[in-house]
Amino acid sequence: MYGQTQVVHYPTLKTVMAIEEVVKNADTAVSRNQIIERLPTKVMRSTLNVTLDYLENRGLVLETKKGFVYTYNPNKKLEKAEREGLRV
To answer: Each residue of 61-82: pLDDT tens digit?
Structure first.
């Protein structure tokens, strides 16, 4: 978990979906501050961190030096290529 802090408030499904949508619709990597600014409702920082950890563990987002990037790709051909491809 981010910073190994105690969770004060767990996110609702609506919050998780809103944060995922912000990262998904961003043209470039977005920082935590930018995500908070773009959300339609206020979110506590600890709730944001828990949500971003969850999305990263599920393989939907990736944290880079510049912020978070949406990485999920439901393409079946890509999934097959990863599964059957040659590992170098």
So the answer is: 999 999 999 998 777 887 788 7
How many helices, marked H, and strands, marked E, lie in the chain?
4, 2
Q: What are 22's two structure tokens? A: 């912000």
Q: pTM score, two decimals?
A: 0.78
CA 87 to CA 38: how far, in whole Å? Answer: 39
E strands along the chain, which residues?
61-64, 67-70
Spell out the residues 6+ positions from residue 15 whose beta carbon is closer than 8 angstroms to its own: 41, 43, 47, 51
Select 2-84's CATH number: 3.30.160.100, 1.10.3720.10, 2.30.110.10, 1.10.10.10. 1.10.10.10
